[in-house]
Design goal:
The complex is a heterodimer of chains A (600) and B (302).
Chain A lengths: L1 H7 L18 E4 L2 E4 L13 E2 L12 H9 L8 H14 L5 H7 L11 H14 L27 H5 L15 E7 L5 E7 L1 H5 L3 E5 L24 E2 L5 E7 L2 H10 L1 E6 L6 H4 L15 E9 L2 H7 L2 E9 L11 E6 L5 E5 L4 H11 L7 E5 L15 H11 L3 E4 L2 H7 L6 E9 L5 E13 L5 H10 L9 E10 L13 H19 L3 H8 L18 H11 L33 H9 L1
Parallel strand pairs in A: 4-15, 13-14, 17-18
Antiparallel strand pairs in A: 1-2, 1-3, 4-8, 5-7, 5-9, 6-8, 10-18, 11-16, 12-13, 12-15, 16-17
Helix pairs in contact in A: 2-5, 14-15, 15-16
Chain B lengths: L1 E7 L4 H10 L4 E4 L5 H4 L8 E8 L9 E3 L3 E5 L6 H4 L1 H6 L3 H6 L4 H6 L2 H7 L6 H7 L3 E6 L2 E6 H4 E3 L2 E2 L6 E8 L5 E7 L10 E9 L6 E9 L6 E2 L1 H8 L5 H9 L11 H22 L9 H7 L1
Parallel strand pairs in B: 1-3, 2-3
Antiparallel strand pairs in B: 4-5, 5-10, 6-7, 6-10, 8-9, 11-12, 12-13, 13-14
Chain lengths: 600, 302
């Protein structure tokens, strides 16, 4: 039903986030009952009344709930919002006096990746109160009406387009004569491509173009720091899910059939999946330019760490590791490309780095920069995951080859298998401290799995190293961060860009050290905190440092009970009470029963 | 992607059997279809083409529901949400509303059916242990006739049932237990849209003073290839007066049944915790004399 609503009726307010009932971006009313249209065979619509998000603001006037989303700042990327609005509409219909816990429960089938949900719940409560008359309709108006913006609560100007489903993301866009693109991906982690035979696919009716790396006219390589990645695998595939060929056809089904007709002969190569193994002599080499498989090593040296450890009263060494993480934006990657009337190759996609990509693509397709245009479509969540030009090159080549508009929309599975993840890391951290809590020396080595291509690894290693020793005054510092090539899914940019991995190690380590020294965890941080005018470990002067203010606010907000962690144990007063979220439960809607259970 | 040549929505049993006959070997029965569409995707079955999908949700007999104080009979196409929204059904099946509220989400529950949950025969199916605790019997029909069998025999293993070729699951019949207190405990990775790692259905009926268990029904899923009824534990619970000590001993008993493929140690811990929490919740809802349950036990598990 979702495909029918989107493709045949062109009602694209109904988004496809997963196609498997997990995310709720496609919720519709079927005879007044909310359901997920991706789980409904379209034949079930026979004789039924279907209402999509477009039905809520048919006249152009937003519903009270939609206005409440606007007022409460409940939309960010907006991709989950039509589904959220539908689910919230259903919740208010089911119970006009729905409380916050029941709102959470009734919206449980809808996932948002940006907001943290609180503003969405605020919006539903606001709409409820207005509908019930306990708040006046004026509560939906903007509070601050002066022209000034800074320090004011202003409504986002793009919210009406998001709550109504009117905003078009790349996957919602169509053009006359548009072809549908599908990508053939590698089943091997590391293999030599012996041959690609696309003749049968090209001959199929409805297929207008098949491309491989042989179709790249210019210098085939892209990346954020090093251009080590071809538009499609060239000679070798280096990870499972790497693009090998792409097809443009009249419809999706034909494009899929054509993929199946492309014959690729691979010769599997010994692969390496662990960064430590990849650094050993004799390990498989991913890229000729990096025979040691090191994508980037960032060293930082301040003072003399061995001297610092010798002066310390306490030296603590621990190991830390973090795992790969998927960005899981609700909008899977999508893009549309065409060659315009002036011969300008134009790419429309939720691309977080259009200017850099424009320059790279011009070199790849051997055109002057004036003949390449990137248009950034609304980004349905990025978090760094849409900084890499992993599919725009294929779209450009197919638009050039077919001279028709072409569109590629990733499935959720394709997005997860083929796009970058947060760098998994292994860290060894050694810290020397004086008895009074002052840090004398920090020695950290972090090895990150960068996967098969460089992407943002260099920058991630750089920021990880710069921030590794934290916002703390440390006289002796030795930091090494290394990004390593392996045959795993490439790692790339992700919120905090490397700082998470090193901060996780340093902050965990400070708690351990505080415990060993009998210090309060806040106290050990205050003792070492950089203050206004501090010089960082990489010699930047900080005019103002808000760390101690942040610590004060955090201590107050968390109701922290002062003292070393070891001194409190079961008597801790800050592990319950106001402001502490109880464990999750369901059943808020069993009104009477619920009250009874709460009393119990 | 799932594609078919024909999507058939029979309006009667006779039409359904005619469709089954004419598409023999080339059809798949669907009800809510909430598991069928995600199944036909990359990483599971991939793109699937089935000549005929036969949708049984328009057959009136599969949507019928009758409830009295003794028995419940529900058509196989009864949506899961009905266990939450229908007060008569909720009263007769005291653990089902709590099972339903943890089942997928409001939207999927409106579409997914109890029959589909049973037929899928997932080792972690939420509805099946509840119905097994209610002594459910399934009614199966084919063009040749009808037969009944206990639900506990019908589910034979992971994704396996005793359904014969050409047969339809018509209805589920089970005990109505309005005097029992019911509970359903479930754990998964998050609270909505999650497959149970372990789930437990508990039903208790107490004597008038709330100090002795007269009837206990316990079933557990997610710990082995199919849901199991805990007959030994039930006997033990009824053999003496209700006490914290008896509940603690009962909670230890099923830990040895954990035979899942993964995370056995974790599941054993969960089983013990769920037994205590499930029994305490069910006992309280059945009107237990609260003085027999010690404060510590309640604080830890309720």
């Amino acid at each position: 039903m979702l495909d029918f609503i989107r493709d045949d009726l062109n009602l694209t307010g109904n988004k496809e986030g997963c196609g498997a009932g997990e995310c709720g971006t496609c919720s519709v009313f079927v005879n007044g009952v909310l359901m997920k249209s991706c789980l409904l065979p379209v034949a079930k619509a026979q004789g039924a009344t279907i209402e999509t998000v477009e039905a809520l603001a048919k006249t152009g006037e937003l519903s009270v709930l939609q206005k409440a989303f606007h007022k409460a700042g409940a939309s960010q990327c907006g991709y989950c919002i039509p589904g959220m609005v539908m689910a919230a509409t259903a919740a208010l219909r089911a119970n006009p006096f729905v409380d916050r816990e029941e709102i959470k429960e009734r919206l449980g089938g809808n996932i948002c990746r940006c907001t943290g949900y609180q503003k969405i719940f605020d919006a539903v409560e606001l709409a409820r109160d207005i509908q019930n008359g306990s708040l006046p309709a004026t509560a939906l108006m903007e509070t601050d009406t002066e022209d000034a913006v800074l320090g004011k609560s202003v409504r986002r100007i793009d919210t009406p387009s998001k709550v109504s489903g009117r905003l078009k993301y790349a996957g919602d866009m169509t053009m006359p004569g548009m072809l549908h693109v599908q990508v053939l991906r590698s089943p091997h982690a590391y293999a030599r491509i012996v041959s690609i035979d696309a003749a049968a696919a090209e001959a199929m009716e409805g297929v207008h173009g098949v491309i491989t790396s042989a179709d790249v006219p210019g210098e085939d390589g892209f990346g954020v720091f090093v251009n080590d990645q071809p538009v499609m695998a060239r000679g070798k595939v280096r990870y499972v899910g790497e693009a090998v060929a792409a097809v443009a056809a009249e419809d999706l089904a034909t494009a899929k059939r054509a993929l199946a007709a492309i014959k690729v002969v691979y010769e599997p190569l010994p692969a390496v999946y662990d960064p430590d193994e990849a650094m050993r002599p004799g390990a498989p080499i991913l890229h000729d330019y990096a025979p040691d498989n090191v994508t980037k090593h960032i060293p930082i040296r301040v003072g003399d760490v061995e001297k610092g450890f010798a002066e310390s009263d306490l030296v603590v060494e621990e190991n830390y590791s973090t795992q790969p993480i998927e960005h899981a934006y609700l909008e899977p990657e999508a893009g549309l490309a065409y060659v315009d009337h002036d011969g300008v190759v134009t790419i429309v996609s939720p691309d977080q780095n259009v200017t850099h990509h424009r320059h790279m693509l011009a070199r790849i397709i051997a055109k002057p920069i004036s003949k390449v245009r990137f248009i950034m479509s609304p980004v349905g969540g990025g978090f760094g995951g849409k900084e890499d030009m992993i599919y725009q090159g294929m779209l450009a080549l197919l638009a050039m080859k077919t001279q028709r508009p072409v569109r590629l929309v990733f499935t959720r599975e394709e997005s997860i298998i083929s796009t970058a993840k947060r760098h998994p890391s292994r860290t060894v951290l050694r810290m020397g401290l004086m008895r009074d809590g002052r840090i004398r020396a920090v020695h950290m080595k972090m090895i990150c799995d960068g996967g098969a291509y460089g992407l943002s690894t260099e920058g991630v290693m750089r920021k990880a190293a710069i921030l590794a020793a934290g916002p703390y005054v440390v006289p002796n510092v030795r930091i090494d961060t290394l990004g390593i090539y392996t045959n795993n899914t490439p790692s790339g940019a992700f919120r905090s860009f490397g700082a998470l991995q090193t901060a996780f190690a340093t902050e965990s380590h400070l708690d351990i050290c505080a415990e060993r020294l009998g210090l309060d965890p806040f106290q050990i941080r205050r003792i070492n905190a950089m203050r206004d005018g501090a010089i960082t470990h990489t010699k930047a002067r900080l005019g103002s440092v808000s760390l101690t203010r942040a610590l004060d606010a955090l201590e107050k907000a968390s109701g922290w009970e002062a003292g070393a962690s070891v001194s409190r144990g079961n008597t801790r007063a800050d592990l319950g009470g106001d402001g502490v979220r109880p464990p999750c439960a369901l059943g808020a809607r069993f009104a009477g029963v619920h009250k009874q259970e709460a009393a119990e | 992607m799932l594609t078919c040549d024909d999507y058939v929505s029979p309006g009667s049993l006779a039409e359904a059997f005619a469709a089954i006959d004419s598409y023999r070997g080339r059809y798949r029965i669907v009800a809510g279809a909430t598991d069928t569409l995600p199944w036909a995707r990359e990483g599971r079955a991939g793109d699937v083409h089935i000549p005929a999908l036969i949708d049984v949700t328009k057959i009136p007999e599969l949507r019928e529901l009758s409830v009295d104080d003794k028995r419940v009979r529900m058509g196989a196409a009864t949506p899961i949400q009905r266990f939450l929204d229908d007060p008569k059904l909720a009263r007769a099946l005291p653990c089902m509303p709590r099972c339903a509220v943890w089942f997928a989400d409001d939207q999927i529950r409106a579409q997914a059916t109890i029959g589909g949950n049973i037929i899928n025969a997932s080792p972690a199916a939420d509805g099946t242990p509840c119905l097994i605790a209610h002594e459910a019997v399934v009614e199966l029909a084919s063009a040749r006739g009808r037969r009944k069998m206990p639900l506990s025999d019908f589910v034979t293993g992971p994704n396996k049932t005793a359904l014969a070729d050409g047969e339809l699951l018509m209805a589920i019949e089970c005990d109505a237990l309005p005097a029992h207190g019911g509970s359903f405990e479930k754990v998964g990775h998050r609270r909505s849209l999650v497959i149970s790692l372990v789930c437990l259905a508990a039903l208790l009926k107490l004597d008038a003073r709330g100090r002795r268990i007269e009837d206990a029904r316990l079933a557990i899923a997610g710990i082995g290839p199919r849901p199991v009824r805990l007959n030994d534990v039930e006997k033990f619970l009824c053999a003496g007066s209700l006490s914290a000590d008896r509940l603690e001993q009962a909670a230890d008993m099923p830990m040895s049944l954990v035979a899942s493929r993964t995370r056995q140690e974790y599941r054993r811990d969960v089983v013990r915790g769920f037994m205590l929490r499930g029994l305490i919740n069910a006992a309280k809802r059945a009107g237990a004399d609260t003085s027999v349950l010690t404060g510590n036990l309640e604080a830890a598990y309720s």
